[in-house]
Design a protein that fits this description.
There is one protein chain. This protein has 141 residues and is of the alpha+beta class. It has three domains: 30 residues, no CATH class; 34 residues; 68 residues, Nuclear Transport Factor 2, Chain: A. It has six helices and four strands. Strand 1 and strand 2 form a beta hairpin. The chain is elongated, with a radius of gyration of 31 Å.
């Protein structure tokens, strides 16, 4: 019996038998459903939320994320300000603390930043004074 495009059914059957089911599935383009896309969107939003909580989310995109920087950094978000606590090293290899206050002055302006550095020899005294003053604030005096 001739096939519509000039090939017989026998030739078509022979061609089909020559390929396995997995090869035939491999050649067939896959398609996505709305449910698949909704699941991908949910995963994307979840991943973006996780990245947004990091201190340097754009560095991750660029592939230059330094995990040491994450370990030696803390961030505190206040109402209109953000405080960054970073441990760095001097040229001699001694650690020191940088406390940076960042705040936005206007909608389209860059943030204003102010930093202080606390060196290793003063860090304990600095921590004691901050702890003492925090206790006084907590007690209301």
């Amino acid at each position: 019996m001739p096939y519509r495009y000039g090939r017989s059914l026998t030739q078509q059957l022979e061609l089909m038998q020559g390929t396995t089911q997995s090869e035939a599935d491999f050649k067939r383009p896959s398609f996505s459903t709305i449910d698949d896309m909704l699941e991908l969107a949910r995963k994307l939003v979840e991943g973006l939320n996780i990245l947004g909580k990091r201190k340097y989310p754009l560095d991750i995109r660029r592939g230059v994320m330094n995990m040491e920087r994450e370990k030696n950094s803390e961030m505190l978000k206040a109402i209109s300000k953000t405080y960054f606590f970073d441990i760095k090293e001097t040229k001699e290899g001694k650690p020191y603390l940088i406390v940076t206050e960042s705040r936005f002055k206007g909608k389209d302006e860059k943030p204003e930043r102010t930093s202080i550095m606390i060196f290793q020899e003063n860090v304990q005294e600095f921590a004691d004074i901050v702890t003492h003053m925090a206790e006084r604030i907590a007690q209301g005096s």
